[in-house]
UniProtKB/TrEMBL annotation:
<dbReference type="InterPro" id="IPR036188">
    <property type="entry name" value="FAD/NAD-bd_sf"/>
</dbReference>
<comment type="similarity">
    <text>Belongs to the NADH dehydrogenase family.</text>
</comment>
<protein>
    <submittedName>
        <fullName>FAD-dependent oxidoreductase</fullName>
    </submittedName>
</protein>
<keyword id="KW-0560">Oxidoreductase</keyword>
<keyword id="KW-0274">FAD</keyword>
<dbReference type="Pfam" id="PF07992">
    <property type="entry name" value="Pyr_redox_2"/>
</dbReference>
<feature type="domain" description="FAD/NAD(P)-binding">
    <location>
        <begin position="12"/>
        <end position="152"/>
    </location>
</feature>
<keyword id="KW-0285">Flavoprotein</keyword>
<dbReference type="InterPro" id="IPR051169">
    <property type="entry name" value="NADH-Q_oxidoreductase"/>
</dbReference>
<dbReference type="GO" id="GO:0003955">
    <property type="term" value="F:NAD(P)H dehydrogenase (quinone) activity"/>
</dbReference>
<dbReference type="InterPro" id="IPR023753">
    <property type="entry name" value="FAD/NAD-binding_dom"/>
</dbReference>
<dbReference type="GO" id="GO:0019646">
    <property type="term" value="P:aerobic electron transport chain"/>
</dbReference>
Amino acid sequence: MPDHDTHQGQPHILVLGGNFAGLAAAQDVRRLCGDAVRITLIDRRDYLLFIPNIPADVFANRNPADHQIVPIRPILKKSDVTFIQAEIGAIDVDAKSVTFVPNERSGEETETLTYDYLVIALGNRLSFDRIEGFAEYGHTVSDLYHGEKLRKYLYLLTHLDPPISLRYETGT
Ligand SMILES: Cc1cc2nc3c(=O)[nH]c(=O)nc-3n(C[C@H](O)[C@H](O)[C@H](O)COP(=O)(O)OP(=O)(O)OC[C@H]3O[C@@H](n4cnc5c(N)ncnc54)[C@H](O)[C@@H]3O)c2cc1C
């Protein structure tokens, strides 16, 4: 397994996940440490997803994919953070390394990257497999695919009987 890491005398900060937490962490580390560190961020997506805004789009009959994503490559470049688009596999704490598979194309090789400091910002996971009946009857608005699926269910299908009334309010 090839290792991307080429030590240049600077501690290597590896950030796993590039949405709200990971992106902010990478930017903050750069702001606080300046040129004293190298920073790498890995995420399977190359965009920030404004998850909290997805419901507002869905219930207003808009596809959230048209409004709620911001490319992160230019943001990371500005902070001199190396970006790797990949599916993260495993963390080896003893070896201080992370395995990942670049995911732009299928069939890519597993690679390894070592770190001096690790930031884990991988969010959470859906539990369709753990909630009985949820896949069949449930909906979520926590990602673009399922948000758009719910929008189509609500607005494009005419099977709802009786028809439902939609009201969405933002707030904490
Ligand atoms: C409908 C809804 C409304 C919300 N509203 C609010 C709100 O009003 N205010 C608020 O504070 N919070 C809100 N939240 C919660 C908020 O969205 C989360 O707290 C926030 O997204 C967490 O950010 P994060 O960066 O920790 O994780 P995430 O946003 O989940 O990001 C995790 C990142 O890790 C990447 N990743 C995960 N696993 C892998 C892997 N194996 N390989 C590669 N990449 C991986 C993902 O691609 C993703 O980019 C809301 C959530 C939902 C669902």
